[in-house]
Design brief:
The chain has 125 residues and is of the alpha+beta class. The chain has a single domain, classed as Roll (Nuclear Transport Factor 2, Chain: A). The chain has three helices and eight strands; from the N terminus they run H-H-E-E-H-E-E-E-E-E-E. Strands 1, 2, 3, 4, 5, 6, 7 and 8 form an eight-stranded mixed β-sheet that branches. It is globular and about 40 Å long. This is SgcJ/EcaC family oxidoreductase. Pfam families: DUF4440 (PF14534).
């Protein structure tokens, strides 16, 4: 599997874990020292802070709705560092759009595994 396919699959994992409200699966995607900026603009430093926030907001966060992620681009900074730009679409129970986002994820490969080291979950007004 190519690195592009692997990263696209990891973004699909973000979507799946969000939709399933799978806190453990979501947190497994992060490097221990990751920095995450939420859609609301809150900066979280380290997987411990990301976990605390995620455990508070993800369970029940998808009630009555869904989300889809589409990779718009992938750029390789080095062989082991990549950036994915994503289009994110939230929908209500009737399938109509309720919100959108343009997340950017910086991934680092260590020991053969890609993990998010920086994430900016930008909400689109």
């Amino acid at each position: 599997m190519s690195d592009t396919e692997m990263l696209t699959g990891l973004v699909a994992t973000i979507e799946r874990t969000q939709r399933a409200e799978d806190v453990v699966g979501f947190l497994a995607l992060f490097d221990p020292d990751a920095v995450w900026v939420t859609g609301g603009g809150r900066r979280l430093i380290g997987r411990t802070a990301i976990a605390e926030f995620t455990r508070a907001v993800l369970p029940g966060g998808m009630a009555g709705g869904s989300v889809t992620y589409k990779v718009e681009h992938i750029a390789f900074i080095t062989d082991d560092v990549a950036v994915t730009g994503v289009n994110q679409q939230y929908t209500g129970p009737d399938g109509r759009p309720t919100g959108a986002g343009l997340p950017t994820y910086v991934w680092r490969r260590a020991g053969g595994t890609w993990r998010i080291v920086v994430g900016q979950n930008t909400t689109v007004a």
